[in-house]
Amino acid sequence: MPIMLPERMDRPAAGLPPDSELTPRQIVAELDKYIIGQRPAKRAVSIALRNRFRRRKLPAELADEIAPKNILMIGPTGVGKTEISRRLAKLTSSPFLKIEASKFTEIGYVGRDVESMIRDLVRISVDMVRSGMMAEVEDKAQAQVEERLLDLLLPTLRRKEAGAEEDVQRFQETRDKLRQQLRAGQLEDRPVEVEVKDRSSSPLEIFSNSGMEEIGIHIQEIIPGLMAGRSKRRKVKVKEAREYLLEEEQRRLIDMDQVSRLAIERVEHSGIIFLDEVDKIAGRESGRGPEVSREGVQRDLLPIIEGTTVNTRYGLVRTDHILFIGAGAFHVSKPADLIPELQGRFPIRVELTALNKEDFIRILTEPENALIKQYEALLRTEGVKVVFTPDAVDEIAEMAEKVNQDAENIGARRLHTILEKVMEDISFDAPEVQAKEIVVDKAYVQKQLQEIIKDQDLRRFIL
After folding, report:
1. How far apart, in Å, are the Cα atoms of 430 and each of 375, 387, 417, 440, 447?
2. The CA-based dihedral angle spanning residues 331, 334, 339, 344, taken in that order and rounded to the nearest 10 degrees
3. Residue 101: C-alpha distances to residues 270, 320, 330 (Å)
4. I need a surface site. Which of 14, 16, 94, 377 has the fewest CB within 10 A?
5. What's the gap between Cα 206 and its chain centre?
6. Which candidate, 36, 34, 31, places its Cα nearest to that of 355?
7. Which of 130, 107, 88, 105 is nearest to 324 (CA)?
8. How many whole angstroms separate alpha carbon 277 and alpha carbon 241?
9. Given a cut of 60, is residue 456 above it in pLDDT?
């Protein structure tokens, strides 16, 4: 499970056909670019995704009856469960939310209620739709921002009774000169005064962040002005004012009602929720302690997964066709420990296998965002070329496998720790290093990891 680079989630991967034409084979091929192995899980999610596309072509009456085939992924941490789901969502520009089932508590206990995950998913969808619409109106907004900046730099001339035409002409010439300077970037540090809305103390945001969004919605209905946020005037440089004004103009040019409508539609028909740590809510009540509400959480989750309507600040959301992907290690408990009703809502079960040395070698080198490729790209910005020899990659993979066996098995995440230790000195010295090419071989890896090797030997001796 390689590191995931920060990426936009609002458009399909480049060079692919429209999402409605992606076949299961194409979906698996795309997932193969980022996740090593785990073919059964990839096949399961690709079929689930293709069924969504098939459902769109059916008559509305029949399509409404077809429930998504939710998936339960079973496997140790760090083998790719989250990454498969996240990449699937990116591939189709679907709203995606990862959340731990253990964060929820039964109604009556202190903690998050299960409906909050739907509200979180809607907020993500709104941000995606709004970002797309703001990009569409950016050119128009930029033109309007330029005019507003010129107004701030050169206040509008008041027409006088005598010599008005000459004054207007002189004013226009001055404004044109300022426009040229503005476009050339010569006025970026000139101070101007702008009006900025302060949304930091909006009551609705406070309620949303605290999980009590419905209370905020009701307050907004009673006292609309309370949620609007206050404005204050600030003196800033032109380059900072441009950012404020651009966002303001883009927000003014888009229709938030349409954004909310499209966002909800996207959630209802293509939303994906990755429900991690399902194994931690499996099992019957122990009668005391923090686990007393585990079965209660399962029963609270049931209507959300089966299909219900949730009230959000953007409108009512039906959860009938959201795809739920459950995941867990199930070391102590097993899927059969879930309540029967919840088991029935995850008809597809796939087991993900633990990773070995050969998998680690492939993870380090093959994916498009492989860890070694990331380090090479980062250090290239310093003018340093880093070359990993095959025996170095082999040693890193072997060490990751050994540490996973002797300590807790955290899968591919172990590679992050090992490789960071290997590259620590090179990353630190890179800005001042004289050599423009650094070779990382087996001997260098062993030298950097000697403390870990000693710890392993000591642990073996003590045990």
Report:
1. 12, 14, 19, 14, 18
2. 120
3. 21, 19, 13
4. 14
5. 22
6. 36
7. 88
8. 45
9. no
How far CA 206 is from CA of 116, 215, 313, 461, in Å, comes to 14, 10, 13, 54
Q: Which residues on neighbouring strands pair with residue 236, listed in sequence order?
A: 192
Q: What is the pLDDT of residues 306-355, one digit of tens each?
A: 999 999 999 999 999 999 999 998 888 888 888 899 999 999 999 888 88
Are 363 and 371 within 8 A, CB to CB? yes
Q: How many residues does the chain have?
A: 463
* Neighbour-count burial for 34-50, b at 16+ CB within 10 Å, e otherwise: bbbbbeebbbbbbebbb
Residue 6 tokens, joined = 């920060």
The token pair at 76 is 């140790």
45 to each of 35, 41, 63, 74, 89, how far by Cα in Å? 13, 6, 19, 14, 10
State yes or no: pLDDT of 21 exceeds 60: yes
The DSSP call for residue 161 is: S
DSSP-based three-state secondary structure for 227: helix
Rounded-to-10 torsion of CA 317, 323, 326, 327:
-130
Q: Are 325 and 273 in contact (CB under 8 A)?
A: yes
Q: Helix, strand, or coil here: 216?
A: helix
Q: Which helix (H) or strand (E) holds 231?
A: strand 230-237
Q: What is the pTM of this model?
A: 0.76
**Lookup result for tokens 């309540």:** 339
Alpha helices in 57-91 (DSSP H): 60-65, 81-91
The amino acid that residue 244 corresponds to is Y
Per-residue tokens: 157: 């001339």
Dist CA 410 CA 404 (whole Å): 6
